[in-house]
Amino acid sequence: MSQPFNSSAQVPCLRDLDTENGEFWVSSPWNFPASGENLSAYERNGVFLNDRKGGFHDVSFASGADSPGDGRSAVSGDITGDGMPELFVRQAGGGALLVYRNRFPRVHSLQLSLRGTRSNSLGVGARIECRMGKRVIRRSLYPVVNFLSQLPAMVHLGLGDATRIDHLTIRWPSGEVQEFRDVPVDRHIRVREGEADYRTLRKHRH
User: Which residues contact 32 (CB under 8 A, 6 or more apart)?
Assistant: First the structure.
């Protein structure tokens, strides 16, 4: 497919097409609705499970999320308030939006929102480190933005069987570092830059 700079441009095909193998040419992406062609082969969605040993397992069929509906983006967010994020898949066919409820075995988690004072107001770019015994989780706060999809500026930390966080460190874009010890889990907390304590916004439902 060509990529002209405006809707009136028409780019000629650069070589002979192999039509027997399904090749086609559309001289402008604005012509797709009239051309009858589609770039999608409607491949089924893939879902892969991290085994925490450096590998991933294909659980597409078992998850039920292997829809052939021409998926364009996937984001996750906890809409049930139980700390287990659901999966949202934006599609161009087969239903515009699919929502898959999280039915994995329940684990502990922490949701973290930031409010900057010296840094930007949502703390975008902050780095978070969470220590529980020998286990360390590191995340950066960047709102997920995908095709026709966006999530709030919030970090979700899956904590497994940990019942408390030994040491939570936040490194703000301004350079300020905040540390909290013995943080309870299964809740959504908000940290304001420069303040000595955090605020619990919500405890997860069980």
Answer: 26, 38
- Strands (DSSP E) found in the chain: 48-50, 56-58, 71-77, 86-91, 97-100, 108-115, 127-132, 135-140, 145-146, 149-150, 155-160, 164-171, 177-184, 187-192, 198-203
- Count other Cβ atoms within 10 Å, centred on residue 113: 19
Label residue 53 left, alpha or beta by phi (over 0 means left) and psi (-120 to 50 means alpha): alpha
pLDDT of residue 20: 85
The structural domains of the chain, ordered by start, are 48-100 (no CATH), 108-203 (2.60.40)
Position 89, amino acid: V
Which tokens sit at 196? 């000595």
Q: In DSSP terms, which residues pair with 183 in a beta bridge?
A: 165
**The model scores a pTM over 0.85:** no
Q: Are 56 and 68 in contact (CB under 8 A)?
A: no
